Amino acid sequence: MAKIIGGITTSHIPAIGVAIDKGLEDTPYYRDLFAIYPPIREWLNEEKPDIAVLFYNDHGLEMWLDKKPTFAIGCAPEYENADEGWGIKPIPPVTGETELSWHIVNHLIENDFDPTVCQDIKVDHGATVPMTLLWPNHTYQGIKVIPVSINCERHPMPKPSRSYAFGKAIGDAIRCWEKDAKVVVLGTGGLSHQLDGPRAGILNGDFDNYCMDKLVSDPQELCKFSNVDLIEKGGAQMVELAMWLAMRGALGEGIPEERLRNYVSPISNTGVGVQLLIPKD
């Protein structure tokens, strides 16, 4: 049977991708941020997951405001990306895992979730920046990826509790897949930030760290927030906590071990959190 071996949260800020392309990881501005990734990469190299289920939000590359599914799952054999105008170099395509993708889709529909199925889709920086951070120099060729998109751009958006339940259903689907496979689950985006409007640049480090604490010990507390609550506390893009909650839901019941943690603020006007969580057997 398939087994979820860990969950990782990480930012997907476009500026991080540009910093990698320009070799700026050890500059004073970025040094503290990038310091956490070598031990996470070491863990990945030791555990050698076969599959990564990657929760992200599409920022308009494929799902613009005129067609914005609440939840969408990639069921393609390969995922390309494209130049979005942020200055990030496109990365080589990532390989999909269609058999598990379809297993997840069928399980979700049988359990009252109705995701959009994407058999031909490009992934944006929400997926490519985390892949580059965790598998530098495009060393992800040995791992298969299932991208799962959650709407964080156009209202109405799924409630935090719904995103958590969605992730839980995906975790249940993974654990009942009959093939032997090691799966890592990635929750990307966040934390506090707002890109435009009168509150552009808002940061809330106290709330970010509260969310990181509760993600480990009591995610149900985070599920009590509405999206409006999150926006008030951490800016319009704080709703990207949805991907973190989906990842945590996939890990299942019980309090996971928080193996690694880092928080840096601001990076590109964003509170950036990183965690490595190991579920209890």
From TrEMBL:
Alphabetized InterPro entries for the sequence: Xdiol_dOase_suB
All residue ranges annotated as the Extradiol ring-cleavage dioxygenase class III enzyme subunit B domain in the record: 8-272
The keyword Oxidoreductase is annotated on this UniProt entry: yes
Keyword line: Dioxygenase, Oxidoreductase
GO MF annotation terms: ferrous iron binding; protocatechuate 4,5-dioxygenase activity
Domain of life of the native organism: Bacteria
Enzyme class at the top of the EC tree: oxidoreductase
Gene3D superfamilies to which the protein is assigned, alphabetical: LigB-like (3.40.830.10)
Coiled-coil stretches: none
Record-listed E.C. numbers: 1.13.11.8
Entry keyword annotation includes Oxidoreductase: yes
Regions that span the bilayer: none
Protein name in the entry: Protocatechuate 4,5-dioxygenase beta chain
